[in-house]
Design goal:
The protein is an all-alpha fold. It contains 7 helices and 2 strands. It is 56% helix and 3% strand. It has a two-stranded antiparallel sheet. The protein is globular, with a radius of gyration of 15 Å.
């Protein structure tokens, strides 16, 4: 099975640049998702993000994306207690957008459960979840009810 460094990640990088504009932070996020963890997770994340990226790129662009208008929840880094106490910014540079989750879930309790689960786990899981939700957010912005 090929590994993500051997697979084309350009489309993922292009659309993720719409929500993680800093090149270094975006490179870090992509490295966590596509270069860390078990190979089957990396390839699965690459496949899902590639499919979502192609849908985003095929959708009409519409108005400029206003990321600041989207409510989010931070994805926290799992830091050892001795490091966490002195960390200036314990959050990853990619948050979890909650606008469409809120619309699709029954109540705040369900939203809280979903956000906690989506942001939990090793970075390759939590950041892949956040990236997929952002690409769904972009797709909804271009084609859905918020347009």
């Amino acid at each position: 099975m090929p590994t993500p460094p051997e697979l084309d990640r350009a489309a993922i990088d292009r659309v993720l640049a719409l929500v993680v504009t800093d090149d270094r932070q975006r490179t870090f996020v992509l490295r966590c998702i596509l270069d860390e963890g078990p190979q089957h997770h990396r390839v699965a994340s690459w496949a899902l993000l590639s499919a979502l990226a192609s849908l985003v790129e095929a959708a009409p662009p519409g108005a400029p994306f206003d990321q600041a208008a989207v409510p989010t929840e931070a994805v926290r880094m799992r830091l050892p207690p001795s490091v966490a106490a002195s960390a200036d910014d314990p959050d990853f540079p990619l948050s979890i957008p909650t606008r469409h989750l809120r619309r699709s879930l029954a109540n705040d309790r369900e939203l809280g459960i979903a956000v906690a689960a989506l942001g939990d786990g090793p970075p390759h899981h939590a950041l892949a979840n956040a990236a997929m939700l952002w690409l769904l957010e972009l797709l909804a912005e271009r084609t859905g009810p918020t347009r």
